[in-house]
User: What shape does this take?
Amino acid sequence: MPTHMPHKLVTLQRHMLEQQARFPFATGEFTSMLMDFVVAVKIISREINKAGLAEILGDAGEENIQGEQVMKLDQFAQDRIYKAMDHGGHLACMASEEEEHLIPIPPQFPTGRYVLMFDPLDGSSNIDANVSIGTIFAIHRRKTHSGPGTMEDALQVGNNLVCAGYVLYGPSTVLVYSTASGVAGFTLDPSIGEFCLSHEDIRMPERAKYYSANEGNTPYWGEADRKFIEHLKQPDKASGRPYSSRYIGTLVSDFHRNLLSGGVFLYPPDRKDPKKPAGKLRLLYEAAPLAYIAEQAGGAATDGKQRILDIQPKGLHDRTPLCIGPKADVALYEKFVREFGGK
Ligand code: AHG
Ligand code: MN
Ligand code: MN
Assistant: This one.
């Protein structure tokens, strides 16, 4: 049995209730909000599994505000999450990678204490090839006190997160989340429609044996990024072996494998536009939630100079370079950035 396999049968709901019991004044609102979200995720999972059959694979023929093609499944996932979360009374507002503006709670429904940020479908370019995709989510406590949520509620540093997680739609559907007391993973048993605890107290291995980066972009990388990856390809002093390369192109999948098996993921600043080199990944919907999970599992995440969770977002769709993985590997990347410059 893998070492992370728990001995008890624990559903996601039970786990959330047990987490909640740690806080004597908890009202249950948070758990109830997450359970709403889980319903949407189960529907998305079901739809992804029959995507080819239902002919909803493929391109919806529109572009999102990032100028990327929106696939039908992105819209489906966006819609399901929105509809599961808009009326529960738990949220002040939402923000999504697929929506340009803050998503308000419709005026006929009550607002609540929390703010939900999400990437409804991560890895969209992989959908048509039947390669695993994901959903990423992050939850903040609102900053304003009442009424509709505002940009002030949405533009918070990752340090303020109260929960983050992701769902990986792979050979099985796995949900990984943290509420600041470690990281746990649950596998969906489709026959009973329940997420059951499958990965208890996930810890990131101390050192990576894999690296994940899109090396097709090397011409657009800075010196530090190129030298860092070249370094990983040399035999390691401790193991005697170079790191192995693994790159799926779905951040959730790359991160999940690296979390369990030990890997460092790098998406450096892209210098295609030399006037504004920027990362590709979105701070609020991708980098910060996964940085939170990485840190909770004993790992780290940086943009090269700064801890991801310390970055103050200026806009809903800010992008950032991202290096995420075991602490030692992330520290090594920062050393290369200090030595060879560039963000
Ligand atoms: P999304 O599908 O939500 O737009 O995200 C795609 C992201 C991320 O999942 C992945 O790590 C990265 O884009 C891959 O980018 P490249 O194809 O440039 O390597
Ligand atoms: Mn994404
Ligand atoms: Mn997406």
